[in-house]
Structure formats: C-alpha cells, structure tokens
Amino acid sequence: MSIKEAFKRLIGVLGNLLGNIKLPEHFHIHFSFLSNNKIEYKKTENKLILDYSKLNSKQKLVITQVVKELLQGDYIIFEEEANKIVKDIQKKDSKFEKIGFFKDKLLLSDYNALETSVYIQSVFEEGKDITKFKRQLIEKFGSRGNTICKLYGAGYFHNLIQPLYAQLSMEKSFVIDDFRKIFDRLIEEFPFAIFVNRTMNANDIIAEIENKIHKNKKYGIQSLNLHGINTVNVKNIRVAIEQLENKGKIKIKSVDEKDKMILVSIEIISS
Amino acid sequence: MKKLITFDNTVKEQMLELLDKRIDKEGFIIEKDSGQRVLTPAGEEITLEDFAGVKKGSEIFIKSDISALIDFAKKK
pLDDT (tens digit, 9 = 90+) per residue, A204-261? Predict the structure, then answer.
C-alpha cells in the first residue's frame, strides 16, 4: 500500500462520518478526544482529528493498518506537546551552535547536559516556567547536570571555561585530559561561585562563603561571585556580604542587580 | 516536520493500542504479544508518562524528556 493509497483507504473507511467534508489527497492526521464527534476536519490547518476510542472495530482496524503503513513510509507519530517543544528547539538552533566549541572537549554526557542547559536558559529568559525541564535535567544528569546548568546560566562556559581551555591548549604537552581534570574540579567544587538557593538564609550564605574562602586560599583564588534569583535570595546575599565586609573578611568589588537577580563579585581578603 | 501524525497527551494509551503495545503493572510500555519492554535507541525502558512518539515502523521510541527531544530535534 503506497502513502497515496493509505490516505485513500482512510478516507474510504471513514465514509459516512465525513458527511459533507471533502478531504484533499493528503492531510494532517491528529488523534484526540472529541467530546461530541468521532471526527472533525479543520480546513484552515488541513487537519483531520480522529477520536480513535469512538470508532467502530472495522474503522479501528483500517486506521491501524494505515498508520502502520505511514510509519513504514517515514512518517513519525508524535505527541503534540513534544512536537511543539521540538519546533521550539529547532528555532533556537543558533543558541546551540554557540556551544559547539565544547562538543569534542567535554564528555558526551556533560555535553548533553550542556545542550539541555542551553534550552532551559533560553526558556527561562523568555520568562516561562522551567521547573519541569530542570527536574528532567537532574533526573538524567544528576547534580553534575544541575551544576553545568547553573554555570552555563551564569555565563561561565563562555567567560571562564572556554578561555581556560584556550590557555591550557597552548601548552606543548597539552592533552584533553588536562582540561577535563580541571573541568571536573570546577563542576565538583565551583570554587569561584556560590549559587544561592531558597533553602539558604543569610547565615548559611556566610558559612558557604567562609567555606569557599578557606578552600580557595589553597589554590590562590582571590575572588568569588555570588548569584541569586528572587527577592528573598537577593536580600539574604546583601545581608551576608555586608556582615562579612564589616568583619574585614571580604571586599565587595561589584554588585549587579536587576529584575530580582543579583551578581556580587567579592574579593577575598587574606588574613 | 512534514510527515507527521500527531496525538494529544490524553490519548497516549490509545496510540499504544494502535501500535500493538500496552502498559505493564509498573507502567512500562511492553509488546502486546511477547510482554517484552520496549527500549529507546539509548537502551532505556520507557513509561507511558515518558512516551512522546514512535518512528520507523513503530520500532524507534522517542522519550518526552527535554534531553531526548533535543537529541531528536538535532537528528531530524
């Protein structure tokens, strides 16, 4: 059965259900729940909507054969919402191109987590809910994936990790594992940044900053960035850095706050 | 995406019935005949909730999580 014949057969079996509807040779087939009808045709979209559960056994049998035939002919059967997301992903192709640099440099699972992070960040920037996507990211890539997402969202891949790779790769003895070892440490400890979340109060933030200061001394890292989103986190960050500055432990280099987001750069004062 | 048949989230089970698949007690998609769990190209078992679609003769299952959809979007 060719594709043309498959459509013809479908039209044939629907027979009386079509009434006055005149279907073209090809149309988009969509399965859904219809409250009053067994089928519906949206002419402007050239879309035939079928409620499979309401069809009789002969109609079901033919439709099953037709769908299977179309699948053999390179058709894809796809959930509508997932299809919308795929279209959105394809529209954002240029955003994915920007991380192409990392493709052969990161482990595949890290690169996949980075791609997912690119999409999540783009949805976040559109002001849409990302809860479901973040949950899926963590389910698939664990806390490592979550960290990659945070680092990407804060711009560290392009501002720090890419230049770091460029610098390392200039060494004559450079091998990709040199970069991956440092990347691992960045992901496991992200010594240069703290991402404040809703579970942290000002005292927790102070404790985390002091913890990073202690660790960073070992590596000679003199600065630290604090990231926070939402009013409460912004307020807690401000309280924490003010207290630490008053104690002479840090110096605030810059505070960038807009749209309930804050980025504070602090300098660690050697004691 | 030209050659496409779509379905609503609410009729997922009917689509599986149409493809000779069903759901086992633990919510995974299985072959109606053999009872064997179907796998994605990455070798993952797939639940009804995770089911996003099928291509090439009802053999290649597509998951609905964002990472799988990115992978699918790039390969198309």
Answer: 999 999 998 888 877 677 889 999 988 999 999 999 999 999 999 899 999 998 878 8
Q: What is the ipTM of this complex?
A: 0.92
Contacts of A195 (CB under 8 A, 6+ apart): A150, A154, A227, A228
| Residue B2 CB partners (closer than 8 Å, separation 6+) | none
The mean pLDDT value for A166-190 works out to 90
The pLDDT assigned to A144 comes to 96
How far is B9 from chain A, CA to nearest CA, in Å? 6
Contact B28, B45 (CB under 8 A): yes
Strand, coil or helix: what is A98?
coil
Q: Give the distance from residue B25's alpha carbon to the nearest chain A alpha carbon, in angstroms.
A: 22
Sign of CA dihedral B10, B14, B15, B21: positive
**3-state SS, residue A15:** helix
Window 49-108 of A: residues touching B by CB (8 A cutoff) are: 51-53, 60, 63-64, 67-68, 70-83, 85-87, 89-90, 96
Query: Which residue from A211, A228, A217, A268 is spatially nearest to A245, judged by alpha carbons?
Result: A268
The CB density around residue B65, as the number of other CB atoms within 10 Å, is 21
CA-based nearest residue in chain B for residue A32: B8
